[in-house]
C-alpha cells in the first residue's frame, strides 16, 4: 500500500529521465517509490490517489535566501514580542502556499525583534516544509555603524564585540551556509542615502579566516553577504563556501568561483547597495561553470537599478513574488538556448543543494524526498502566479490543494 499515487501527469523529473509526457508517481513514508511512464497498474493501491489531468508534476520550489521570521515580521505584519513568532509562521505558510517546499531562513539578532535562536529552531521543526536556518552576525552601514548578532538578540553595538564563542554557537546552530557573516555593510531596506557606509568591507582577511576556520572545524559550511570583487576575493581566499548576492562581481572573479567551487545565491531583485545581478550576468556566471541558485531575499524592496522588473519602488516583495523575481533570469537562460529543465533547476534542485549539500539531488526519482508541485504551467517560465500551482506536496502528503 502506497501513501500517494499521482497518475495522468506530465512529469518533469529534472534529472536524466527528462520529461515523461504521461506517467505516474508513487510515494511512501515521505519518499518517492516509483516514477514510470504510462498508466499505473490496476492493482496498485494507495491511501491518496490524484488524477493530475495532464498537468505538470515537478520538484517543489526552493527559495534558499529569505528573511521571513525576523525583519519581515515587523515590516509586513508590524509585530513585536510574542506576536512576532505568529507573524513568522504566517510568512512561512504563505511560502508554502506559493509552492515553496524548502527555504533558507536567517536569524541575525535584530535589535528590537529579539527572539532567541531556540524559538526559530522550534518553529522550523514544526513546519511541514524544510526550513534551513542560518545564524549569523550583521553589520548595518548607518552612521554610526551597527552590529547585531544571533547570539545576542535584542542588542545593537557600534563596535565588534563578538568572540570565538559567538561564532562557535552560530556555527553549531546553523544547518545551511546562509548569511553567517556580512563582508560588506548592508543597507537592508533603508534608502541608500541614509546608509553612508553601505558596501564598505567589514572584516580583515585575518579575522575572516578565523571565522571560516571556526565553521569548518565544526563541520559546517559557511556563507556570506557579499558585494563586489574585493570581498568576494577575500572570501574565496579564506575557503568560504557560498556567496549570497555577489552583486557586481567581475567575470574574473566568476572564473575563480568556478575553479574553487564556491556556490552563488543570486538575488536579482535587491540585497546590497550595488545593482543586483542582471539576467545577462547570471547567464555569464552559468557559462563559466559557477553553481547558481536563485532566491527572493524576501521581504525586500526593489533596487532602483533593477530595471528588468516593473515593480513599485515601495513594493515589499515576498514569497508570493518568488517566481516574479526569478522569471527574467529563467526566460533569458531559455532565450540563450538553455533547456527549460536546466533552467528550472535554478529554482528547485540547485537551491535544495545549497540547503542540503550532503543529500542527493532533489529530483523526481525513487528514493528522493516526495516534495513536489502540480502546476498548470511551468513556474517562473510560463507563469508567475502561485494560483497556477494546484497542489503542494511535502513528504508525500498534500499540504495545499487548489484542484
What's the total number of strands?
18
Q: How much of the polypeptide forms β-strand, as a percent range? A: 15-25%
Percent of residues in helical segments? 25-40%
Report the total helices.
Answer: 11
Note poorly predicted spans: none
Main β-sheet description? 8 strands, mixed
Query: How does the helix and strand content classify structurally?
Result: alpha/beta
What is the oligomeric state here? single chain
The global form is: globular
The H-and-E topology, N to C, reads as EEEEEEHHEHEEEHEHEHEHEHEHHHEEE
Give the terminus-to-terminus CA distance: 24 Å
Please describe what this structure looks like:
It contains eleven helices and 18 strands. 27% of the residues lie in helices and 24% in strands. It has 403 residues and is an alpha/beta fold. Strands 1, 2, 3, 4, 5, 16, 17 and 18 form an eight-stranded mixed beta sheet that branches. Helix 8 packs across helix 9. The chain is globular, with a radius of gyration of 21 Å. 51% of the residues are buried.
Question: What key attributes describe this structure?
Answer:
403 residues; alpha/beta; 8-stranded mixed β-sheet; 5-stranded parallel β-sheet; 27% helix; globular
In brief, what are we looking at here?
The protein is α/β, with parallel strands linked by helices and 403 residues long. 27% of the residues lie in helices and 24% in strands.
Break the fold down into its secondary structure elements and pairings:
Blueprint (H helix, E strand, L loop, with lengths): L1 E11 L6 E10 L2 E7 L8 E6 L4 E4 L1 E3 L7 H5 L7 H15 L2 E8 L9 H10 L3 E6 L1 E4 L5 E4 L14 H10 L7 E2 L22 H13 L5 E5 L1 H10 L3 E6 L3 H10 L2 E4 L12 H10 L3 E3 L27 H14 L4 H5 L4 H7 L16 E4 L13 E6 L2 E5 L2
Parallel strand pairs: 1-4, 1-5, 6-7, 7-8, 11-12, 12-13, 13-14, 14-15
Antiparallel strand pairs: 1-2, 2-3, 5-16, 9-10, 16-17, 17-18
Helix pairs in contact: 5-6, 6-7, 8-9
Amino acid at each position: 500500500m502506497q501513501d500517494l499515487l499521482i497518475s495522468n501527469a506530465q512529469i518533469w523529473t529534472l534529472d536524466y529521465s527528462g520529461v515523461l509526457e504521461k506517467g505516474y508517481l508513487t510515494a511512501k513514508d515521505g519518499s518517492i517509490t516509483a516514477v514510470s511512464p504510462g498508466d499505473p497498474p490496476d492493482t496498485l493501491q494507495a491511501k491518496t490517489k490524484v488524477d493530475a489531468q495532464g498537468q505538470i508534476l515537478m520538484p517543489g520550489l526552493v527559495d534558499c535566501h529569505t528573511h521571513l521570521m525576523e525583519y519581515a515580521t515587523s515590516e509586513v505584519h508590524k509585530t513585536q514580542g510574542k506576536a512576532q513568532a505568529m507573524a513568522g509562521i504566517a510568512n512561512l505558510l504563505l511560502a508554502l502556499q506559493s509552492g515553496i517546499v524548502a527555504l533558507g531562513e536567517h536569524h541575525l539578532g535584530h535589535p528590537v525583534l529579539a527572539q532567541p535562536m531556540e524559538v526559530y529552531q522550534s518553529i522550523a521543526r514544526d513546519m511541514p516544509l524544510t526550513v534551513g536556518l542560518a545564524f549569523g552576525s550583521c553589520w548595518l552601514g548607518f552612521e554610526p555603524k551597527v552590529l547585531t548578532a544571533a547570539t545576542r538578540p535584542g542588542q545593537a553595538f557600534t563596535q565588534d564585540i563578538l568572540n570565538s564563542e559567538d561564532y562557535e554557537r552560530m556555527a553549531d546552530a546553523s544547518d545551511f551556509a546562509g548569511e553567517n557573516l556580512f563582508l560588506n555593510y548592508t543597507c537592508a531596506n533603508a534608502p541608500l542615502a541614509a546608509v553612508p557606509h553601505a558596501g564598505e568591507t567589514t572584516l580583515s582577511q585575518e579575522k575572516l579566516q578565523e571565522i571560516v576556520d571556526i565553521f569548518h572545524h565544526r563541520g559546517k559550511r559557511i556563507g556570506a553577504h557579499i558585494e563586489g570583487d574585493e570581498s568576494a576575493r577575500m572570501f574565496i581566499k579564506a575557503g568560504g563556501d557560498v556567496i549570497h548576492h555577489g552583486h557586481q562581481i567581475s567575470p574574473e572573479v566568476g572564473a575563480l568561483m568556478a575553479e574553487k567551487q564556491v556556490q552563488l545565491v543570486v538575488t536579482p531583485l535587491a540585497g546590497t547597495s550595488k545593482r543586483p545581478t542582471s539576467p545577462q550576468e547570471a547567464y555569464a556566471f552559468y557559462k563559466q561553470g559557477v553553481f547558481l541558485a536563485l532566491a527572493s531575499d524576501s521581504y525586500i524592496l526593489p533596487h532602483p537599478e533593477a530595471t528588468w522588473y516593473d515593480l513599485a519602488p515601495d513594493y515589499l516583495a515576498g514569497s508570493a513574488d518568488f517566481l516574479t523575481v526569478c522569471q527574467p533570469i529563467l526566460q533569458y537562460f531559455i532565450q540563450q538556448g538553455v533547456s527549460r529543465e536546466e533552467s528550472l533547476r535554478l529554482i528547485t534542485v540547485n537551491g535544495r543543494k545549497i540547503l542540503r549539500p550532503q543529500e542527493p539531488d532533489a529530483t523526481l526519482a525513487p528514493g528522493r524526498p516526495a516534495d513536489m508541485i502540480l502546476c498548470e504551467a511551468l513556474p517562473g517560465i510560463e507563469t508567475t502566479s502561485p494560483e497556477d500551482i494546484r497542489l503542494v506536496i511535502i513528504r508525500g502528503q498534500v499540504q495545499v490543494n487548489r484542484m
